[in-house]
Amino acid sequence: NAGVTQTPKFRILKIGQSMTLQCAQDMNHNYMYWYRQDPGMGLKLIYYSVGAGITDKGEVPNGYNVSRSTTEDFPLRLELAAPSQTSVYFCASSYGLAEDTQYFGPGTRLTVL
Amino acid sequence: AQSVTQLDSHVSVSEGTPVLLRCNYSSSYSPSLFWYVQHPNKGLQLLLKYTSAATLVKGINGFEAEFKKSETSFHLTKPSAHMSDAAEYFCVVSDRGSQGNLIFGKGTKLSVKP
Fold first, then answer.
1. pLDDT tens for residues A24-41?
2. What is the DSSP string of B70-110?
3. Contacts of residue B107 in chain A, CB cutoff 8 Å?
């Protein structure tokens, strides 16, 4: 099992550009999550999904969009990139609810200039 | 609302000495609590979790944590630090009311001196 994979590992964007961060998991998990991690801070939830076709906002959703057309994939879309979106982005998945372990991908480091 | 406070942003120990990373939480529910570790430029990995079973929880790599409801604490300990323990550690509380959403502390960076 590859677990949770993310692409790309690094990306530099110019202000106003758009991009999609890819996330895939091969553990047949129902729940998937996108977090951002800023320096000196814990992770903050951007969006999550409880199954294919179902997504919901987390704590910091502004400037992002998601979709979940399959169980395996959960892409995160940045429209009109801004310097405030410079961060490290982590995708995670879990089988079930709150007390289930979340498995994290290796992260995507995004810089917006 | 759930919250978690890690009391130290940076802890430095010598190899072979005990490790204590402190965490206090606030939760209106009976919480699930976790410790995750993040090695440099890596994703997060679960160390251990508490889900209302035994209050002393054993995790990987010799780490353990004790859930103390009266003190609202979930401190992480290890009897003897190893160089490979150098990493960032996150205390996390799960919001049972919102589909498994995790609330992260700001992290404690553990340095281990030879």
1. 999 999 999 999 999 888
2. TTTEEEEEESS--GGG-EEEEEEEEETTTTTEEEE---EEE
3. 40-42
